[in-house]
Amino acid sequence: MGTTRPHRQPKARLRMGSGGPRPPEMESKDGESRNIKR
């Protein structure tokens, strides 16, 4: 996962950390949450 897109690795971590108070819609828009779920 990290070898394919190192840019999404750090971003996904920040999004997951702030995914609590923030709605999942923002993650879906970025498309990062989709990669994490997969």
**What is the average per-residue confidence, as pLDDT, rounded to a whole number?**
56
Number of helices: 3
Please report the total strand number as a whole number: 0
Q: What structural category characterises the helix and strand content?
A: mainly alpha
Give the % helix: 55-70%
| Beta-strand percent range | under 5%
- Low-pLDDT runs of 5+ residues are none
User: What oligomeric state do these chains adopt?
Assistant: single chain
Region (Disordered): 1-38
Biased composition (Basic and acidic residues): 24-38
Biased composition (Basic residues): 1-14
Protein name: RCG57218
Keywords:
RCG57218; 38 residues; globular; mainly alpha; 61% helix
Structural write-up:
This protein has 38 residues and is an all-alpha fold. It has helices spanning 8-17, 24-30, 32-37. The N and C termini lie close together (10 Å). The mean pLDDT is 56. Residues 24-38 have a biased composition (Basic and acidic residues). Residues 1-14 have a biased composition (Basic residues). It comes from Rattus norvegicus (Rat).
In short:
With 38 residues, the protein is mainly α. Helices cover 61% and strands 0% of the residues. The radius of gyration is 10 Å and the shape is globular.
